[in-house]
Amino acid sequence: MLVKVLGVTTCPQWDLHLMSGEPMFEGRPLPYPYQPGQPGHEAMGEVVAVGPGVAAPAVGRRVVAWRDQGHHRPGAYAQYNVFEAEHVLEIPRDIEPEDIASLELAMCLFGAFDPLARWTEIRRKSMAIGGLGPAGLIAVQMARAFGAADVIGIDPLPDRRALALDLGATEARDADPALLPKGAKAKDAFDLAIECAGQAASLRLLMNSTREAISIFGVLRGEVAYSQRHTRGLAILGYAGHSRAAGERALRLILDGQVRLRPLATKTLPLRRYAEGIQLLRERQAIKICYLPWAD
Taking 80 as the threshold, does the pLDDT of residue 24 lie above it? Predict the structure, then answer.
């Protein structure tokens, strides 16, 4: 189907790495040139045409992408983009781009939460969220939706800690080892954790402060040693992948108000001001940018 893109949000990891000439995944090649419109993939819009055999969503319906279609195809930093019908979900017509375009990221986070939920009970336990970028701030809200009793956001930036508290964290701490539990046997040790920063130092802090299990969501850079001090019950869980079912679950959380995406869109800009938005991300003056391809 052909979709008129009404809003698209940055995925800072992809945008900043590509703009800096670095591969997203450490050690992998960077396949320049990218297709036009890449790496835009967190997008919503209106269906304007459908191909043969596509019954729904129909022309005129609003949709949001739940899946990144891959970097071998044109991306959604554009006024129009072609999507496979199975890669979008229908949404209410009156929902604004800032409130829904980042659904794909919320969908991805189920790939970190579901392994934890299969491993152990999340309800009534404490959960630390390492890194309060876009993924970490959504993870704070999803932890509450999964029933965690205490949600502790960890990040060195004060403004992101403050936003985590606004979004439902019960506590927010600086990423300073002195402010975190002293080992898994400490009375205040976290029961569970999700690592969203993608940094070895962040994972080390969580490994030294968590008693049951850590799920790794961030694209990890660097190596972390799993030593004798961690072998007494601490599980390290990898990413479980994504699915349309996870996208549908994310959509329900958003429509129910349990996950709010608008606070992550620090600024809304016309797409022609893309470079300005990227500079705000680079300077950590924004969490995400929402671009409006049809704005002046």
Answer: no
